Amino acid sequence: MGPPPKPKPKPKPKPERTPDGRYLVVGGRRWRATDPEIPEDVAARLRRHLMAARRAVAASHRNEDPAAERVARSRVQTAKVALGERGTPWWEQSVGERRRRWEDGVTELDADPPDAGRTDP
User: Which one of 10, 39, 112, 118 has the largest count of C-beta atoms within 10 Å of its C-beta?
Assistant: First the structure.
């Protein structure tokens, strides 16, 4: 007989949203919500790019590399804009503008992976 099964982790509660759905409320602070029109597969790709860019920002700090930090912060900005969390609010854009925003963002991020041109092992 093996060890007892591990208990399943409790799912994280979803953050509170404002009644209009435009903002998340975390710790009493409002944060712009991701554009709900973005298809989930595209939003997941953009979130992966965002997390990779945030890790690159942290690595650039550890390595004291301001050039790498600028590149990483630019990638964070591109991902956040594509998700609709920065830039022109998604609720002020037409459906076509919103689609172009996330398609352009994912195309740019996919075309230039964070480790492109890297020579260190």
Answer: 112
From residue 33, how far is each of 16, 18, 41, 46, 94 by CA, in Å?
11, 10, 17, 14, 17
Residue 1 scores a pLDDT above 70: no
- CB neighbours of 38 closer than 8 A, spacing ≥ 6? 46, 83, 84, 98, 102
Residue type, 104: D
Label residue 90 by pLDDT band (50, 70, 90): very high
pTM: 0.82
Output the pLDDT for position 26: 93
d(CA 71, CA 114): 8
